Amino acid sequence: MDTDLVLTLGIILLVLSVPSLLAAWVEGRVPRFGAIMFLTSLAMIISALATRPGGYAFGEIPDIMIAVISRMAN
């Protein structure tokens, strides 16, 4: 799988895990699903950062995400 795609999916999953974690915390229940999503997204992001030769610069991430989304749209 392409490291740009893995990074993009990891970031999207990370953003989606935050509301789940917050909802579980507010309702006083264990955030099982949110925690699994959070850990999976961190693993995806770390693997993409470790696998890509040269790594990623912080300023490149928006351009990479837009490129991945445009590739999927075509």
What tags apply to this protein structure?
74 residues, single chain, elongated, mainly alpha, 3 helices
The separation of the N and C termini measures 18 Å
How helix-rich are the residues, as a percent range?
A: over 70%
Structural class: mainly alpha
Q: Cα-atom Rg, whole angstroms?
A: 14 Å
- SSE topology string: HHH
For the sheet with most strands, the description reads: none
Contiguous low-pLDDT stretches (5 residues minimum) are none
Number of strands: 0
**Proportion of residues in β-strands:** under 5%
User: Mean pLDDT, rounded to whole units?
Assistant: 93
Shape designation: elongated
Tally of helical runs: 3
How many independent structural domains? 1
Question: What does this protein structure show overall?
Answer:
This protein is mostly helical. The chain has one domain (3-73). It is 78% helix and 0% strand. The protein contains 3 helices and no strands. The protein has helices at 3-27, 32-51, 61-73. The radius of gyration is 14 Å and the shape is elongated.
Structural topology:
Layout (H helix, E strand, L loop, with lengths): L2 H25 L4 H20 L9 H13 L1
Can you give me a brief rundown of this structure?
This protein is an all-alpha fold and 74 residues long. The chain has 3 helices and no strands.
